[in-house]
Design brief:
This protein has 439 residues and is an alpha/beta fold. The protein has two domains: 2-149, Orthogonal Bundle (DNAb Helicase, Chain A); 175-433, 3-Layer(aba) Sandwich (Rossmann fold), CATH 3.40.50. The protein is built from 16 helices and nine strands. It has a nine-stranded mixed sheet with strand order 3-2-4-5-1-6-7-8-9, sandwiched between helices. Helix 15 (328-346) links the parallel strand 4 (311-315) and strand 5. Helix 1 crosses helix 6 (96-125), helix 10 (212-225) crosses helix 11 (239-251) and helix 11 (239-251) packs across helix 13 (267-278). The termini are far apart.
Amino acid sequence: MDNLKILPQSIDFEESVLSSCLVGDTEEIVDLLLPADFYRTAHQKIFKAIIELYKDDIDVNLISVADKLTSLKCLEECGGATYLASLLDIPIPSNKTHFCSKVRDKAIQRDLIKECNEITRLCFDENDVEKIIDEAQKRISLISNRAIENKGATAKSYNNLVVEASERYEELSKNPGSITGVSTGFFMLDYILCGLQQSDLIVIAARPGIGKTALALNIAGNMGKVGDPALIFSLEMSGEQLIDRQTAGESGVNSQKFRSGKFEREDWPKIQKAQSKIYEWPVYIDDTAALHYREIHRRAWQLKKKKGIKVIFIDHLQIVRGDKESTRDREIGSITAGLKATAKELKIPVVLLSQLNRSLENRSNKRPVISDLRDSGNIEQDADVIMFLYRPAHYNEEEKYEGQTELNIAKQRNGPTGMVSLKWNDKITRFYDIEKREE
């Protein structure tokens, strides 16, 4: 019986849309639909003729469409002049956008059925599971993007943007100097960034052992304390390791004890108090290894819908899987471009941790610069914010006291750059503010 099912279609809506075109109401419709969106072949050909007339700046009406179909030698295939004339008797929609959306929704459903059938065929014919998953994600992603576009025109005019901006400026003026993004919990970092901004791809880079994972975990914990949901994709460390670090940082108990088990009696009340707080924080950890960036997007989208997450943390770039490219540089480029698209589509900041090239270890000044980013210049291109962590004591620079950390904001697409000073407590893997700026 399943094979006899009729594909999703909306013939009444298709006829109503064509009727609207035939009376000259064409401009908005040709921007919203393609000939392939129509189910009936005749409707596809009629709409194709309408588009060609519109592009040639010829009035669209019954006579011009019939003449165009005649020149294309397909008038009779479309039902002839009689069928075209009958379309004029169909009620014209008052809300053309809604009717066009109905037609496109059915087209997207048909495309999904087609692609799902193709994915099913791949499952039978292909033995490489990774290849099947990549192909399935790619096919579904293309349809997903089209479904998002189906919500309406994406271009906005200046007059619309100016009105929206005026309202936004007025709202901002009520709290001058306030954080407009998501607070990191670090005063000076929030001061320079105005919080983690919606739709930004933010890169935190450092050499191993400097504390980039700890900083991300500290920010996520600070968010949790004020009830802001956060999602951490930990591709390297397990969820158990991260919760141990979070508990050590919150309780003040030496993190080494969470590995050795050598707890002292006075540690337990501190741990229990910290756990009672952490238990309530809306922070989520996905520690699946080697995720593809499209899978990160899919899981983040689901959790935003269910839990309202406000920031995504990804640890770290070099172990995220990208599209299969000829070079690693291009593969990294596919990842950063994909994650930037995730930030824009979900309208939340994506914080991406990254390693640095080993070459900086060979020079006298070991403070990172943008050219030290590992594997790809695309990181610099796609990132809205790039920050580098550096601890002088890690390189035995005696003039700096133990624990001082420099967080250098080397790039901020829409704001200033600058240096933030933090203090690092190695025993509990936690950063602290060490200065505040007076207003």
